[in-house]
Amino acid sequence: MCAGMNAPFPSPSAAAPMQIPGGIDPVPVPRNAPVREDGRIDLLGLTRDQLRETLLAAGLEPKQAKLRAKQLWHWIYNRGTTDFTAMTDIAKAMHPWLVERFVVGRPEVVEAQVSNDGTRKWLLRSADGQDYEMVFIPDADRGTLCVSSQVGCTLNCRFCHTGTMKLVRNLTAGEIVGQVMLARDALGEWPSTPEGRMLTNIVMMGMGEPLYNFDNVRDALKLVMDGDGLALSKRRITLSTSGVVPMMARAGAEIGVNLAVSLHAVTKDVRDEIVPLNKKYGIEDLLQACADYPGANNARRITFEYVMLKDKNDSDEDARELVRLIRKYQLPAKVNLIPFNPWPGVAYECSTPERIARFSDIVFKGGISAPVRTPRGRDIMAACGQLKSASEKVSRAELDRRAAEKEAALG
Ligand code: SAH
Ligand code: SF4
Asked: Are residues 153 and 97 in the same domain?
């Protein structure tokens, strides 16, 4: 598991937040125009078409715009270049024209931490002063970047620190792909070659619910997968959702990456409590959407995430019900058992190691792989789904109030 909590990061900036208008399903947030205070346009995060159109709008002839868009694309995503004057195949005379109008941005790094197990965590800040985090987890055979899709999360799963954040806004495609670019910068992985990379995998398991920010997540992941750029295979990217059922088919069709589903419970009562979205999209509908997910097969299984909460969802009966449900829907599945990572004010405890081992054993004997995830980066509080600066100290009563507010919005 990736990410973290309670790190000694400073409070989020006091800058006016962008509140999400309307209800929460789906969250209607206008796409941010990537215009900066200095009036220049940030090219990071634009699709190929948007890049060409931006050059056209700035006054280039269509043929020129097409050529320059292609060149810029290569420099930005294949070479990691942020300096227009270093783009040697673009005529020198054009450099000042580009510099005047555009930038190739990166998120601002507020703080970077390295764990004694090699896990790295960054606190990032957007141009409007919103903080979000990303985590890099190196392993022997891979390196996984845990990427955020929103600042905060509207869904308020009871065991998740991100859900307690008051301010929520979608990250732009540029802010999402910017995390990957920044990680590549930090790891020294330019130009982008397929061999010998440290950053090999991406999981959308940081802050936020990616399927509530569908367009930006899709556009950002398309940039990440583009062959003449970051060129990460869709097989190495996993999108994790808490179960936004109506968006799952589109995720399969338009993004096509691996799917992880935060199941966490097998009965309506318990899932309603810990993943309130379950009141809207129940377990059976969720599993049917998994069965319909395109591209899922035995070679590309759906991952079910299951956070182990003491005396809540960890009984033998729960494990057997999990096996029954996965079989009923004939899902090519594996189960990731996640030891719960507690945070101040939370009402749950982690299951004992013996209980987790027993649960894993029952699922495994049911014919389904059920590894227990090893917590990483505990010393820097890097645990996925809890990516949150903890300097915001909130009382239990305030947490309950926020939860009630969000649940009311769920209807
Ligand atoms: N919103 C998406 C993706 C981000 S959460 C989702 O819910 O799937 C990524 C994972 O971290 C989820 O499976 C989430 O349930 C898990 N997680 C959140 N808080 C946690 C905690 N305190 N301990 C362990 N896992 C947690
Ligand atoms: Fe949001 Fe995922 Fe946390 Fe639930 S677990 S509150 S969906 S980030």
From this structure: no
